[in-house]
User: Fold these one by one.
Assistant:
Number 1:
Amino acid sequence: MTSPNATILIVDDEPQNCKLLSAMLKPEGYLTICANSGLQALSLIASNPPDLILLDIMMPEMDGYQMTAILKADPSTANIPIIMVTALSDQSACLAGLKAGAEEFLSKPIDRTEMWLRIRNLLRLKAFDDFLQNHNALLEQQIQERTADLKRFRLAMDATTDAITLVDRATMHYVEVNATACNMLGYTREELLKIGPSHIGAGAPKELAREYDGVINGHSKFELKETQLRRKDGSEIQVEIYRHAQRSGNEWIIVGVIRDITERKEAERRMHHLAHYDPLTGLPNRTLFYEMLRKTLTQAIESKWLVAVLFVDMDHFKNVNDTLGHMVGDELLIEFSNRLVQCVRIRDTVGRMGGDEFALILTMEDDELGATVVANKIRDALREPFYLSGNEVTVTASIGITLHPNDASDAQTLLKYADTAMYRAKHAGRDTYRFFTAQMNVDVLARLEMEKALRKAIENEEFELYYQPKVYLKTGRITGVEALIRWNRPGHGMVSPQFFIPVLEDTGLIVRVGSWVIATACKQIALWRQSSVGALQISVNVSGQQFVEGDLDGDVISALTENDIPPHLLELELTESSMMVNTERTIAILDKLKKLGVQISIDDFGTGYSSLAYLRRFPIDKLKIDIAFIRDITHNADDAALALTIIRMAHGLKMEVIAEGVETIGQLAYLRHYRCDHIQGYYFSPPVTVTELEKMLLSAKRMAAPALPWNMYTVQSALSV
Ligand SMILES: Nc1nc2c(ncn2[C@@H]2O[C@H](COP(=O)(O)OP(=O)(O)OP(=O)(O)O)[C@@H](O)[C@H]2O)c(=O)[nH]1
């Protein structure tokens, strides 16, 4: 402070001296305070520090030296300049004053100008000193704040889960890295600060420099890049780098925030795999298969290749699931897919379309023979049994083949056509292949048309029941009838069940139609009971789907109660294969109905599983020998032997036997001879309308016993061979 109104403390035990000095200073604009002793002075300084002290040396109690020493020892007063005022003229007193810490001294008598000059200079120095001290304190505070900031920043940098790196564009070296960067890359900080991003596989130096310049020049202000980095141990790490440029003086610093995305990438890879591959077999799923087929077709058009799509469906796979369980079914699907893969070349594709359906893409340079070769290869590969959890299983497959460009040129149509051709192979008896033909398309459309018409037929009640009599061989009398559905399709006349039953089965409509048959048959039983026809048993055919998807026991029970008829007048005819679906449930339903008194019969016996031992689990009253064995019974020894075995075994199990499709007297004679219980067939009557049947019943039509022995000798000699 140089302004004259600085405060000056005058310390002198002589009040006169104080007054004199005050009088000298006031005109210069200084404020003065006086103290008569050292102690008073110290107390004044403590409450109101002056800018300068004029201090007498010789004072009682505490002299000027002592007071100076005290003030200079205290940091809060050390910078107050002290001028010692002494009457002593010797040099040693002055030096002692300076030694004690005083800045200046004045000799009495005091020269006004000298005093003014000294005071002014000391005040100037003090002001400068004060300024320096303040400035230093400020700088120190700033440094402390910066250090704390940096510490916080470092802590934050090190605490983040992202790696942060600062690269000097000029040297392409790291100039700063956080702890996460070190952990992520497996280097120490010191090691990283000696290298640059190109050392850890971020890119070739030139390429990286180009990228950094792009960031610097603002082509991409913030740039996000997915890449791989190499750890110190050589392992790779998937990262996402977010980069931006920061100017630092004349240099550019590239700040990189690096995130480890290895897990995310793995999850993405897994999701992609799940979305495109079948988890059971590991084969491409339907989605990926389509994609691959589309790509193959594009390439094939360019290269003028032929492409074949094969649709492969296992035959009767459901039986494996139902008899050996789903786990074994799964095992079979895996093994089956392995065999398919082995049947094709590496460049071909095998995919799983769902369930037991697989599809293949084959590219061929010449003709469609290649497709036939593969289809046969598949069939041959399936000849060997599969060994699944201790079970030996043999399966066959039905294969549909379609060709590009012959049949279609887009993936969807090709696959649809291959599927259609596969169905044709199924209908042809399975274990075979079929090429798609234009006629198949026509058939498919006709089938769709029929499906639509059948839905309408259910609503409009266009179905009718015909009845075929069953004759008891001991009496020749009609003891029951089989209800056979007919469809009186408007504009088409009577449609044979062989055309529409498979469509009802495939579409699931059989469940609704099956219920209708049961209800209608029961109504008819009731009507006959009330008429002169009397009690007559009707058997109805039941589909496996009625057990699984329908409410068979509910349908039967309500039809019986609504019409108030004794349950034994209703017989359910089931095929062997329908009993193999969901066996436990089927047995439970049949047991329930059997307990009520409903009769159970096995239809088409001999064509399916044909294990009597297995069938013993079911509550069966009657077996119906399939028409296929009856047809040639009189001249085919095998058929005759089989029919005989069935009759004997069934009787052994206390079941009755009925033969269907009996058309000739020879067949009748054979069956009667070997004690078949009932027959049904054109020999006695074809299926007829209710009216015709009623006529037959009322006229008590019966079957005369054939005159024996009708070519029985031929049959017997054939059997004895
Ligand atoms: N074990 C197992 N079974 C499956 C799987 N996916 C579907 N299925 C079963 O596969 C069967 C497919 O049967 P379908 O093709 O309709 O009939 P099928 O018995 O093979 O008879 P056809 O094809 O007419 O010869 C059904 O019973 C499904 O329940 C699966 O991943 N594992």
Number 2:
Amino acid sequence: MRKFKHGKLSGGCADSCCLKLEGLSVSMEGDQILEDVSFHLHCGEIVALIGPNGAGKSTLFRSILGQTPYKGSITFSPAGGPAIRLADGAAAGGTRPLVGYVPQSPSFDRGDPVSVLDFFTAATSKWPVFLPIPREYRDRAAAILARVHGEDLLDRPMGALSGGQLQRVLLALALEPVPHILILDEPLSGVDIEGEHQLLEMLDELRTQYDLSIFLSTHDFATLGQFADKVILLNKRMLRAGPPDEVLSSPEFYDTFHLRMGRGGER
Ligand SMILES: Nc1ncnc2c1ncn2[C@@H]1O[C@H](COP(=O)(O)OP(=O)(O)OP(=O)(O)O)[C@@H](O)[C@H]1O
């Protein structure tokens, strides 16, 4: 599946744009949710975040989005530009990087008559969708959907979309405007194998086309090696980070998911 390995990574952070998390900690209602999490994310890189239920994956995303207060630092350094430090979600000394976000799949009632065009219009304008939608809004929605090869979905009811089609519609919205960083919370859940393959191809195409950092969480470990440059294993703390094969064969991975090491493993 992988068609493209990003060339800029060879120089590390110095000559490529980079999101840096350093010593990130989050507490809520007296509970420590994240503790001392540090890693870098480069443009053009797809990084998968894995961990058991309740590991803090969505909380980590919300911290980057500025929706959850944290301790530590999050900085964004555009290639060749000054670094932007995000303190508790506020950009200090620069323009806030654009972060596109696809939340964990919302569900739509099967009989819900809201069309993809209605949904787009409501999300991107103040036009009352019970009135006929003007041509310019329709053309704009079609152009945005075309980025994910979804123009044909425009008049479909949201409730009739498959899991993969719904993810593509949400992805198209997250790409308007095209962000610096794209975050997807479990985009593969509820998506069949064919849809999953299309979505992963799409992400590979988008990061190449727009030089995006893509950061996604998943519980589907079987496909990680096909699309992720790096995997981060999280369970409150960052337990391991590296290429997919290295993380998936690590003792930390086996311990976290209560698996036994196979032959050749040291345990
Ligand atoms: N608003 C909140 N107030 C208090 N605790 C919270 C809040 N939001 C999340 N938590 C707790 O933080 C922990 C991490 O939750 P989070 O949703 O980030 O995990 P996750 O790794 O995304 O889980 P999953 O894989 O099940 O989606 C959980 O124990 C959860 O109960």
Number 3:
Amino acid sequence: MTTRRPMIAGNWKMHKTCPEAEDTARALVGQLTGKEEAEVMIAPPATALVPVSRIIGDTPVQLGAQNLFWENQGAYTGEVSAPMLVSAGCRYVIIGHSERRQYFGETDEGVNKKIKAAVAAGLVPVICIGESETERDGGKTFSVLDKQMEKGLEGLSEDQFSQAVMAYEPVWAIGTGRSATPEQAQEVHAHVRQFLEKRFGAQTAGAARILYGGSVKPANTAELMALPDIDGALVGGASLKPDTFAEIIHYKR
Ligand SMILES: O=C(CO)COP(=O)(O)O
């Protein structure tokens, strides 16, 4: 049986100026012992990546970006490429977040190109999938997720996928205070892992980390993390305060 190191990731979304981000990162580092069971990642806004990377330097906190564009360089005003993120100190990049799909027209095809660009540059993609409330109510959860995975992961070899992290974020649970129940989350995570097994084989699927995201807070982390196919959390609102995020990281205490 594969052991998967849990991961607790903070998606700061469009929050924090550079000084605020530096203060938050410094305070978070101050709360960690270095012996955390979970790998810790924070994804500040693009402007704060470099200053935050200087603060988290050799600490156990890893740096992630919230998006990228799939070309390495060129006339793409406003965009940031995978090699640029690497040069800013990133190891991870969140791809296909539902807010990007909803507000910025991100498609499964774009997600696919972004994943390939991330992997080619040596970044680890955190690939987000999730159904809306209407889709869940209509009994379409699995078909929606399957389509997002089929198109998003199209053409990726087992080797290319091997480091990737999946994140299941039901849209109806994001920022609503209404997290998925442990049963709902486990059911979907097991389904995602089965999909990965069919696509990439048992070993890769067994090693893949699948994070849950959507109203994760200190009070519900332990019960979610106890489930067999939940390997971590992608935390939005509750990652903005270092004390609260540290409580989530230390969910076992
Ligand atoms: O979208 C999320 C993380 O990427 C979840 O956000 P909340 O934790 O604020 O619900």
Number 4:
Amino acid sequence: MKLLVTGANGQVGWELARALMPLGEVVALDRRRCDLSHPETLAALIAEQAPDVIVNAAAYTAVDKAESEEALATTINGTAPGELARAAKAAGALLIHYSTDYVFDGTKSGPYTEDDAVAPVNAYGRSKLAGEVAIRASGCDHLILRTTWVFAARGGNFVRTMLRLGAEREALRVVADQHGAPTWARNIADATAHIIAGAQRERREGAFASGLFNLTSAGETNWHGFAEAVFATARSALPELALKVTSVEPIPASAYPTPAARPANSRLSADRLAARFGIVMPPWQDALRRCLEELAR
Ligand SMILES: NC(=O)C1=CN([C@@H]2O[C@H](COP(=O)(O)OP(=O)(O)OC[C@H]3O[C@@H](n4cnc5c(N)ncnc54)[C@H](OP(=O)(O)O)[C@@H]3O)[C@@H](O)[C@H]2O)C=CC1
Ligand SMILES: Cc1cn([C@H]2C[C@H](O)[C@@H](COP(=O)(O)OP(=O)(O)O[C@H]3O[C@@H](C)C(=O)[C@@H](O)[C@H]3O)O2)c(=O)[nH]c1=O
Ligand SMILES: [Mg+2]
């Protein structure tokens, strides 16, 4: 089996290059070799590579910047996945694509299921929704995996931002009225490998159906709770990191103005993924500890 990964230098893309190895030949392309801001180049690239599976881990993920660059974000997150999907259809390949909790407005009280209505409140969310719609319209075999609050030992993410700020400042203020589940890129990649193996088995048996699945850590918190857990875990897992921070104040989002609005509820139900692929993701606290232990090494 030949698997083509886009966004090879991203949090998830980096982990995929390792996690997919047991499944076959992995060709992991970074932005330089596969640029989603030029969707018109993708059909030829896929035809030439002739993969059995395409895993699209490339995305425009700068949520605040997307407010002033919505056209570019939409090209990368909307138009390009549509082109990959049409190329996947032509090649008879399976497309795995990642989406986000930010397709929701966050007004639901419980966890969102895959059947809940979408209503993005920011440009990034609209661009990611455009990608989902374009993929569905292509008719290729696909699985769209919605994840949330991704972190990893490398790359840009909230954990690394908190470790940097916590080493610089004594007091931090962090939003406490946005709720979700931090998800480790490694767990996403490992789950993806398991999902691909299951999906390819289904496709061989003629039992495959394309679909949408939530893929997030078990448990929930808010950004303030996550920040406090980062510092508590770092104090034991990363003792050599001199943390200055002594106060982490919980604040409402209204006291932390940002260009992009963010949903208050980002919690996603994990039931559909468990039922189809038998995957139960670990609690976010366990993933955080393992990630920080890795940072220490
Ligand atoms: N990060 C998060 O919190 C969440 C992410 N997701 C989704 O999960 C998926 C993986 O995200 P994640 O790994 O966290 O994101 P990252 O931001 O860590 O990685 C995204 C990668 O995409 C690459 N990229 C950006 N623009 C282009 C382009 N024009 N052409 C090709 N590659 C490009 C970046 O390249 P470069 O390294 O050169 O900048 C980067 O390597 C995405 O679909 C994202 O929308 C969903 C929920 C939460
Ligand atoms: C740095 C900082 C952030 N915050 C707040 C801002 C925001 O509400 C929250 C998280 O900030 P971030 O900018 O890290 O989060 P953000 O970039 O919005 O994260 C999102 O990224 C995209 C790609 C997704 O798909 C989402 O699932 C989600 O992970 O923390 C504070 O309250 N205090 C701080 O010091
Ligand atoms: Mg961000």
